[in-house]
Amino acid sequence: MPISEPQAANFAKVLIEALPYIRKFHGSTIVVKYGGNAMITDELTQTFARDIVLMKLVGMNPVVVHGGGPQIGELLEKLGIPTRFVDGMRVTDAATMDVVEMVLGGLVNQDIVSLINRVGGRAVGITGKDGQLIQARKLTIQRESPELKAPEIIDIGHVGEVQHVNRAVLDTLIASGFIPVIAPIGVGENGESYNINADIVAGKIAEHLGAEKLMLLTNTAGLMDKSGRTLTGLTPREVDALVADGTISGGMLPKVRCAVEAVQTGVRSAHIIDGRIQHAVLLEVFTDTGVGTLLHRGAA
Description:
- 41% of the residues lie in helices and 24% in strands.
- The chain has a 7-stranded mixed sheet, with helices on both faces.
- It is α/β, with parallel strands linked by helices.
- The chain is built from 9 helices and 13 strands.
- The chain starts with a helix and ends with a strand.
C-alpha cells in the first residue's frame, strides 16, 4: 500500500532536516553512554541498536560505553551478596567485583554486541582491561567532619577512577570499521580490576578520542529549570550558576559534572538526553531541536 501524501511530505521533511547533520558529522567520533532506562524494554533496545548502526552507515564513528547497575544488583541478590552504597557508589569487595566482571564484561556487553550485529552492525565487545584500554587507580572517598581533626578516608573496595585511556585500541577498531562496545572495568598497575562509573568512563574516552559529541542517556528529559522546562545550549559557567542556586541537584550532579568536564577538555558538545524516547540518539544528532540538554564550551 503506497504511503499517503502527508506521510510522504513528513518523511521528506525528516530526510531534508537530517542531511546537513549527516554532512557535518561525517567522520566524527560520537561517544554514547548507554544504560539504565534506555535498556528497560525490547523496543527501546532495538531502536538504540538501529540508531547506532545508522550512525555508522552514514559515516560517523559511534563508540558505546554501557552500564549495568540493575543487572548487577539482581545477580548479587540471587547470590545472597549484600549491596551497600556510599555517596552513590557501590561498595565493591572481591566477591562483588567478580559479579561486576561477569555481568558487565560478559552478559550485558555481549547482549549489546549481539543486538547491534543482528541489525546490521559490526560491533566488538571489550572491557577496559583489554589492551589496557582503561588504566585505573583505586578511588577513595574523603569525608569532612567537625569532630575529626583530619578527613575520614572511606575504602569502598575495587572502585576505581580513570588514570589513562589507551586510545590506540579504539583507533584500531574504528579504522577497521567496527563499533566498540565498552564495559567500564579498569585495570590497575598490578593487574587488579576496578569497577568504574560508566558516565565517567564515557567522558574520559570522549576526551581522549577528541570526540565531536558525548551523549549520556538518562531517565529524564534533560536538565530542567525550576518550572520544569528543559534547558539546552548551556555553557559550563551557566551550569555552575544552576548548581549554585539549587536548580541542578541530587543524582543529576555527577552526570552534569562529567558533561562539563568533557566540553572543558576538548569534546565539542555534550548531551544529556532522555533514553526513554525511541530513537533518542538519532533525534539528538539529526534534528534541529533534539530531545535533551546540550552543553557546549561557549566563547573563549
